[in-house]
Design a protein that fits this description.
- The chain is α/β, with parallel strands linked by helices.
- It has 13 helices and 12 strands.
- It has 2 domains: 110 residues, no CATH class; 222 residues, Alpha-Beta Complex (Spore Coat Polysaccharide Biosynthesis Protein SpsA, Chain A).
- Strands 3-2-1-4-7-5-8 form a 7-stranded mixed sheet, with helices on both faces. It has a 3-stranded antiparallel sheet with strand order 10-11-12, with helices on one face.
- This is Ceramide glucosyltransferase.
Length: 380
């Protein structure tokens, strides 16, 4: 009897916390709407670190040159001149002579983080006080800058956007949508609502004088991931990380199980190293643990296991699906199945995060230890 009660209460508590996170995120998130540039809009520098050609590279480049902001410059950063993306960037610059744009090539080894190393030259070259660091696979809407600026408050030190997966091609890409959207983005927005804002490196709006006064972009080398370092730096000066109300898309295309496993374990291990106290309870997110507890309680009480499982899954996934529907995120008949597969993977990803070993980030082989990430080699 005691086991039945304990397992039932624990399962209920986890399912309720899952529902609470959805409600908190829903209260903070807004469905996308167009924002006009404000009067007296300040000039902005947009730094785009690039490496390699991806299926949506030409489209994301075109979007960057089509922003509805009165004055902005684009600074594309590539580590190596022989990278095939150089040709596409140069062609895009040539097609848009009215947009101030530059391509900078070189690699400043300020950290073990190859993305941060690639951004240093762009930061130093930026002409304006407002600087956006934008990953090359972000699908910028025309009002990209407006959404970032609209989230800035007097006590803000950094504005970010989580990536929202879109255009999945195949089931495993839908699983990645389930990871990115209604799990990771949802919990990040729920955390911000509770005053626990965490930076996300996909899109980061900085006030350049503020960051320069606190060590500059090199200060982001203090942690293995630049967004973790950014979170700690901003909090250390008494400011907050805010998220845009309508996060930006990342088109996915095709994905394989191996790609998702590699990416999710890498991110999990980075979170474990940089924020261990917040990472430890991640095993409790998703439906796997509350479902297991519910089944234990049902078995002890002689209740139908199939009925219990269906009820627990409905409580977990119906609100999650409604969140995606309400915010205009990707949703398909296979989405619930993708969420289930994601939640089956979560305990294994969480367990894997506690071990070291090699991971790969865009051709960079790296090892994540308990307190550091060491770059082993860069593959040409």
């Amino acid at each position: 009897m005691e086991l039945t009660i304990a397992a039932g209460l624990a399962s209920s508590a986890l399912l309720l916390s899952n529902l609470a996170s959805i409600l908190l995120a829903a209260s903070r998130l807004k469905r996308r709407h167009v924002i006009a540039p404000p009067a007296g809009a300040q000039p902005v520098s947009i730094i785009v670190p690039s490496r390699g050609v991806e299926p949506f590279t030409e489209e994301t480049l075109q979007r960057a040159f089509s922003l509805d902001w009165p004055r902005y410059e684009l600074i594309f950063c590539v580590a190596h001149a022989e990278d095939p993306v150089v040709r596409l960037i140069e062609a895009a610059i040539a097609r848009h002579p009215k947009v101030a744009a530059r391509l900078l090539i070189g690699d400043d080894r300020v950290s073990a983080n190859p993305k941060l190393n690639n951004c240093v030259k762009g930061w130093q070259a930026a002409r304006h006080d407002w600087v956006i660091l934008a990953d090359s696979n972000v699908l910028m809407p025309k009002d990209y800058v407006q959404h970032l600026m609209a989230a800035w408050r007097p006590d803000t030190g950094l504005v970010c956007s989580t990536p929202i997966g879109s255009r999945p091609d195949g089931f495993w890409a839908e699983v990645e949508c389930a990871f990115l959207n209604t799990l990771q983005a949802r919990w990040q927005y729920a955390g911000e609502t509770l005053g626990l804002g965490f930076a996300q490196g996909k899109s980061m709006l900085w006030n350049k004088p503020m960051l320069d006064a606190n060590g500059g972009i090199q200060a982001l080398a203090a942690e293995i991931a630049e967004d973790a370092a950014a979170t700690k730096l901003v909090n250390s000066v008494g400011l907050h990380v805010n998220l845009v109300a309508s996060p930006f898309e990342q088109p996915l295309g095709q994905r394989s199980f191996a790609e998702i496993w590699s990416r999710q374990t890498r991110w999990a291990r980075l979170r474990r190293v940089t924020f261990p106290l917040f990472f430890a309870p991640e095993i409790l997110t998703g439906a796997a643990v509350p479902l297991l507890l519910a089944l234990i309680a049902a078995a002890s009480a002689g209740v139908s296991l199939s009925t219990t499982a269906l009820c627990a899954l409905a409580i977990a996934y119906l609100p999650e699906s409604l969140l995606a529907l309400a915010k205009g995120w990707y949703l398909s008949p296979r989405s619930v199945t993708a969420m289930i597969v994601r939640d089956v993977m979560l305990p294994a990803i969480w367990a894997r995060a506690w071990f070291g070993g090699a991971v790969e980030w865009r051709g960079n082989a790296m090892t994540i230890h308990t307190r550091e990430l060491t770059e082993l080699e860069e593959i040409a």
